[in-house]
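Hey team,

Filing this mostly as a record. A colleague (T.K.) asked me to run one chain through the structure pipeline before their review meeting, and I want the input and output archived in the tracker in case anyone asks later how it was produced. No errors, nothing strange. Just documentation.

Input sequence:
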Amino acid sequence: MTWSISSYREFLKCQRKWFFNNKVGSRSLKDTFRREVHLLSELESIDGWRGKIVDYTISEFIVPKLQKKQSINSSEVIEYANKLSKARFEFAKAQRYKEKDLKKTEHDYDYSALFYFEYLESTEEFQSKKIKAWNEIKIALNNFLNNEEILNYLRTAFYLVKQRTLQFKIHDFNIKGVPDLIAFFKNGPPHIFDWKVHYFGTKNYNEQLLIYASALFNCNPHKDFPNDITKYSIYDIKLSEYQLLKNTIRSYSINDECIEDINYYLAEGIEKMKLNNCEKKYEELNIEHFEKTQNLDNCVLCSFKRICKEN
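Output structure:
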């Protein structure tokens, strides 16, 4: 079974939602219920949509230019993000994600499924959220582009790896992490970055970054990773979280206490999920063994709220 920190946090927040998301959903057209659950699992809030626009623009437009040591025109970046936003909005509006023969992997650029079009919130309220989201996309990207210190630092890297899956094994669980960016240097340890696009930006994500570091240190390196990274210990790996809306960078160092804490966190998380038999297949599980959240606020923007009431 694959374990990720985002999946585990979802499990802690609402076991029933985790069950729908990770066990019930299926792309198969043969089981209409499981197909419906899969389609609902694709839905995202306008805030989630906003974050993905920023992530994709940085990964696919800005990082390649940094890798090639090219100059970056901010107006071109905003234009790219604007076109991307429009393409994804139109894709979601047409509900193309429901097309039977559609392959998500062939729509990396425009794929989107918005909660609004499934549950039809107030149009006026949604338009207000959409305008706010676009303004925040521009703020986040401009903050990044105006941070010459971080841009110049990334230009000194000899290899930048974006959105690469890292995995390592603990018992029967595959621990998975997908850092936003790993910067490799010729004469220094790797540096892992995580972009965050949250309005208030008060929460820190050191646990997530520590898991990324553990994954980078313990995984079988990808073929294009530098050969000399093995000379660095996990304590050497640099970690930074960039809160793009607040334009603040939080950096974390790794010490024995951090390693002990993250190993305990992983062991505890795995044990809690094993107690619920989460590693078993859908056919072997009972939905009643997965409790619903006690906080009804979690249900407001839950993609599964319609079928949850029926099950």
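Quick notes for T.K.: The two ends are 25 Å apart (CA to CA). The beta strands are 2-3, 159-162, 166-170, 173-177, 181-185, 188-196, 238-243, 248-252.
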